[in-house]
Amino acid sequence: MKKNLIAILLGSQCLLSSGFATDFDVQKIQIKNISQNNRKFDMSIDVKINQNQSGDWLFGFYMPRTYNSSKDVNPNLTLKVTDLSTKKSANLSYVKKADNLTTMPIYGDGYSNLFRATTDFELEEGHIYRFSFENNNLWVPANISSLPQSFFLIDSNGNVVTSNANLDAYISKNTKEISSIQGYDSAKINIEIQKKLQSYVDNSIASDSSEFANQYHLIPTPLSISNVGSKQNINSDNGVYVDDSNSKQNIKLLNQYFKTDKITTNDLKAVTDKSHASIIFEKDLSIKNKEGYILKIIDNKIYIRYQTNAGLFYAIQTLRNLYQKDNVGSKNTSNMLILPQVTIKDQPRFEYRGILLDVARHYFSVQTIKTLIDAMVSQKLNTLHIHFSDDEGFRLALDSVDVKKASTRGYNDSSTIPTQMYQQANLDKSNYFNQKIKDSDIISPNYPTAATIYEGYYSKKDIQEIISYANARQITVIPEIDLPGHAKALIDSAPDIFINKSDKSDYISVQGYYDDVLPVCLYNRQILKEKSLQLRLIRL
């Protein structure tokens, strides 16, 4: 292998339904570094044609590099297709949105690259063609996911044929190892992964109280653990005493946990006599941290002190950790809880403890988000940041937006959004979740292709449900909508509102888009009134 040959990917297997002959096979991909600083590279793709294609065809693929060009991006780019049998060749052009495509309203944008021959150039059955892309200046691909994938051909009638190579296509037939990609060393990377995982384990071990915390799976480790003693037997039938009426909702939550975890058979009852109760919730303003609490188990009773409902809620989560060990799954019919004698004082070390969920690129159902919220609760996290929009999808059902169009990705003859929104087929099966396959004869339900339809959005009711579910579990929801950039999906959903036809700007974003910015300077009250643009916030 030559020193500057970064990758040779061999393979002809495609993820297609059995018995269905694809119109083309990707046989070889080559990436070659042509600069000292790894900035520029050449690429070639060898394709075998299995069915004649007239001169009016389109060839495309997904790759985290654009083959569009401007003054600074790919200014010296050369695109060509060559018949390796006859040596006949033709130049290629990158198909942009502005091109007049009356029969095939499809174009390249972002990381979706689409090309056509500049002259009439027929692809003949049985011939192998080399698609050459030279002088790309957007850095040499450094891993397999950065290489071209999701290949497709579109014939003169607008029919799309896909060809996804599986993992074998990324393995050299000579060495049976993944080809070298800019110094890629799988063994070295695996070592680094193990080091990082071990560091997570090391950092999670507390210097004090670690034995008890590990035994009862207390995550995160409480601030202090003391007075550990013998097992206590708590009769849940004796009820719960709460001195703060605002905290009674936590009785319902604890009762729900007991039922879900099969701890008791009877509902917990609220009692007014503290001396008779087995579980006692008491507000304590001396606890300075609003999310702090003191959990004490002694004399066959559970005492929880807190300043706010948040502290009580987190104390209940710790209690839930404690009873999991000796009670869950024990088919308890006596409604007796077995818990260790202990005093736990805790408060968060960080005020913000959150997760960012990107639903723009991958839609998650309301139920899946609720499952995530439940997992966050187990780790005492308090903020869910939801990324609702990006170039690849706009997922909020607003009155003035065609959300069906804004939230759909994929290409076929009835697609509502152009192919630049189709998914990356990076050999990750999670990409397949929630997809709706439109044509089982074209693709196998293993990995997405250019023809895979992927959709999903959230109604106002869905958003209200998510927020209510999160807030009941002490989690704040932060909605994020990318504007004015990263707005490709929103722009495509209402082009008469969001496209300024007099704008002659020539730009290419880092992600390869050239039309994903709203013309904010164009708008004024009169324009908004004329176009009936109403992007109102959802009120609960």
UniProtKB/TrEMBL annotation:
Signal peptide residue numbers: 1-23
Domain Beta-hexosaminidase bacterial type N-terminal: 216-347
Domain Glycoside hydrolase family 20 catalytic: 350-513
EC number: 3.2.1.52
Superkingdom as given in the UniProt entry: Bacteria
Pfam families reported for this sequence: Glyco_hydro_20 (PF00728), Glyco_hydro_20b (PF02838)
Cellular component GO terms, alphabetical: membrane
PANTHER family membership: BETA-HEXOSAMINIDASE, BETA-N-ACETYLHEXOSAMINIDASE
Name the UniProt record assigns to this protein: beta-N-acetylhexosaminidase
UniProt source species: Francisella philomiragia subsp. philomiragia (strain ATCC 25017 / CCUG 19701 / FSC 153 / O#319-036)
